[in-house]
Amino acid sequence: EGRVIRRLVCLTDRVEDLIAEFDRRVMLGIDLDDDASLNDPEDDRKYRSYKKLVAWCPSIRKLIHSVVENAELSHIYSKLNKGADGARADDTTRLKVTVASWLMQQTPPPSPVIHGQNKLGRGFNNDATGRLICPVDYDWNDPVVQQGVRDYHPDYRVTAHSWPAFLYQDGKYDPLKPVDGLFKGKLLLKTFKYIFTSPTSAEADDQEQLDPEMLSLQGRPKQRRTDGERRTRCDLRFALSSTGSWRIIDDEFDHQEFYDNIVDFLELAVTSDVAKEVEDLLFWWNRKVFGRKHVSTYRPQRVEQLSVARCSVRH
Prior knowledge:
By secondary structure, the chain is an all-alpha fold. It contains 15 helices and two strands. The longest helix is centred in the first third of the chain and has 35 residues, at 70-104.
């Protein structure tokens, strides 16, 4: 069960810290159904992650309501955390090679060559990867921008306060319509399918041939799309960078802050219009991942409003 934690629950939090936040709320009598209370935002994030932990790791719920010695609890937490970190290591190792292969299939191929096992030629050292992780607030086509980013110029800082270009459809960002195309990048979608469905599905642009039995086994598509998408963005950003091993801070770019920004975008809709934007985005993802003909799985009909239901309520 621990392997699902880094993929669908949280980026770095330890299991015991998430459970400690649940315990704190119980002791203080805080409403457990309230995800956004008057607490510190970080505490609220932890509690939302705790609820995902319970959803994806059913044994946690049993553990919380059982009588277990502290030593045994520590052992269980350690095993879950080890599984979580092991899954992240496996994913980042596989993606390091796979993303390089995808980029080298471009016509013309990147120059210099992007090697599968060596990340030194990635990041802003290579035009192909630099273009993808460049903040959308800058124009990578401008040589001044490229040099400024590589020289760590204060006018061209690369931080989690800007979305990387690979998040946008075709890498196109409109400052007047900043949400248009966001989280619809082609490479992002391929990476998600590679991790959460199969390497074969990542190569397919059309999911209409997806086996219905496989679809049923994947389960809870809307929730999985939401939980998995944000982790995928961090994985892809790391795979494109020149950083050799996983770390939270890559120069000035904070992966935890990047992850939190994505979580807040998807989960903290402040208006009905924003909530509709997120719903439409998840609908787009579900169609891309599961295929158009499986729409009933992730957006069931409101049958009570349709003609048969209306005719059955006769007086």
